[in-house]
């Protein structure tokens, strides 16, 4: 009766928890990427105009224009920040869902225990 | 395995212990990585400092992994620096040093942050270990465990009591002036209007009738409230003059508190921060009180006030509480009053244990915040919170996987049948979700004085309480 329901609820809860974890990991990665990109942007801005900048594409280093490199880096930074915002929103939504699911699991568990409690004195 | 059995708590603790170990290992790895990066940067900077000193350096140039050949480093001032994210820049050695210095600063802050987090994790491990050890030895210290709900409700009652102390003072003054004010009092059945002008005897009758009509839980609640009110009253009496109309006030206060507690239970999370702030102010007098009353041998714990402490460290909202004891004079009175309440309580405890599981529900968010607070000793909020939330979610997933709610609740059976010994701390009967009743752990019969020899053995170590409940000693 309550058992399959409870098992199902627990399963969904576990799945939600795992999703939350994966989300947290992605978030951490994004954070480190953001930090790095910000550093690069800062360094590029400090450079003189005539410095030569190379970009590593695979095993080769390709010469790039300083201005071009700066714009590329800025765009990349914005992109990562957008990703970060998305991941945060998803995290919040997942948390809310997990909380709901947890409440449901608790309720079912309590019901089950109640039934067990009433069954025992009867038996 | 019952949810509130000590065996379950033990296993949950072990799981948590393992989790903390894992987190510590991950943190140590990260720290070592950062340290090695820092060392490399420093070495490179050293080399760069010496490089432009000579036009030409002779060196053994590595050729693959296993071979070298002698060569010269000629253009000693031109270096290509990796900026990060696949960008390189050709610059002078001095400028390269500048770039590396800035990188080094970032890495150093990362190292210090990682070290702090590691320390926090290690502290957490210590706590877990000590609690595990105490669980197995089960001799020296007594732990008070209550669900967060109950502690929140108690906090709410403590906060509301203070408000009502002021209100009571006001009412008392009014009564002295003889105004006929009707107080609206909420009882279990509904609202009843109790004119303040009723004689004390009539009011007592009313009270008793109401008590009999109410459930055993409510009666126990009221009994508990009476104690709390008496304690509050004592404090008031110490400050203010005694007024003749105390009893009426008390009874009204009781019922109001009953109402407020029932309402307070529904607002657990909201009230916790506010009430915790209130309770902090109270912890000081409570601690002093504890010291004062340590010698007293009377075993009645029901007189004690409870203060829920801030973030529960263990999963599932285990909260140890600092307890305040009443002076001996009051305790005997209350023993008489509360015997009935106790018996009813015991009956209700068995029936109410079922609802224990639901208590863990509000424990989850505070737990997360607890872990966050524990981890966060530095401004690296996103990193720390994500790691802490991942730890909490993984540990919570493992405990939920064990099939029952993560409520850390001692069986009231062990609580009630425990050694008959005076314990200055109150063990909370957490089996009743809706009732805010800290159960008396043991009852010493009125006639028999508690054996003095056991008092010291059963005294809970304040340090243990602090470790369990308080993040920082206050």
Protein architecture, described:
The complex is a heterodimer of chains A (123) and B (474). Chain A has 123 residues and is mainly α. Chain A has helices spanning 2-46, 66-122; strands at 52-57, 60-64. A two-stranded antiparallel sheet of chain A has the order 1-2. In chain A, strand 1 (52-57) and strand 2 form a beta hairpin. In chain A, helix 1 (2-46) runs antiparallel to helix 2. Chain B is mostly helical and 474 residues long. Chain B has a domain at 6-133: Helix Hairpins. Chain B is built from 13 helices and eight strands. In chain B, the strands form four sheets. Chain B has a two-stranded antiparallel ribbon with strand order 1-2. Chain B has a two-stranded antiparallel ribbon with strand order 3-4. At the A-B interface, helix 1, strand 1 and helix 2 of A face strand 3, strand 4, helix 2 and helix 10 of B. Strand 1 of chain A pairs antiparallel with strand 4 (87-92) of chain B.
